[in-house]
Amino acid sequence: MKRSCFNVEDDHLALEGYFKRDSGNKEPASIETFLHNYTSGRPKRFSYKQLKKYTNNFSYKIGQGGFGSVFKGQLPNSFTIAVKVLDVATEKSEAQFLNDVLTIGRIHHNHLVRILGYCFEQSRRALIW
Q: Is 72 annotated to bind ligand?
């Protein structure tokens, strides 16, 4: 249990570092660069093309949330997945996306669904459970 707490704390510090702005630069670091460099226990990265294939072109919608729609899909190994496609990116939704990838993606608990992966491609964002 202590290990999980430290992992979440490490993720929090990594996320805090992402949003920290130095006095000369008013823009946060590139999310693309951050996700590329953050390799410790991260979920798998999927392409948008893969997600379209796995969800049969997003044909089976199973829900709608505050940040996007959720679709049922299936991986090539027949494992059933849920894909949450995030709506238009805002600063708040970008922060939520990073938080989900960094923290929920590394939590292991019997009563929580773990994020298997994510998609970050141009303006497209998705989380895969």
A: no
Mean pLDDT of 39-55: 85
Give the integer Cα–Cα distance in Å for 34 and 39.
9
Of 32, 83, 27, the C-alpha closest to 55 is 83
The whole model's pTM is what? Answer: 0.63
- The answer to whether residue 42 scores a pLDDT higher than 90 is no
Q: Identify the CATH number of the domain in which residue 73 sits.
A: 3.30.200.20
| Residue with the two structure tokens 């510090």 | 13
Number of domains in the chain: 1
Structure tokens at 87: 């709506």
Domain that holds residue 107: 2-128
Nearest to 94 by CA among 18, 9, 7, 14: 18
What whole-number distance in Å separates Cα of residue 75 and Cα of residue 50? 9
More confidently predicted of 37 and 25: 37
Torsion angle of alpha carbons 93, 71, 118, 96, nearest 10°? 20
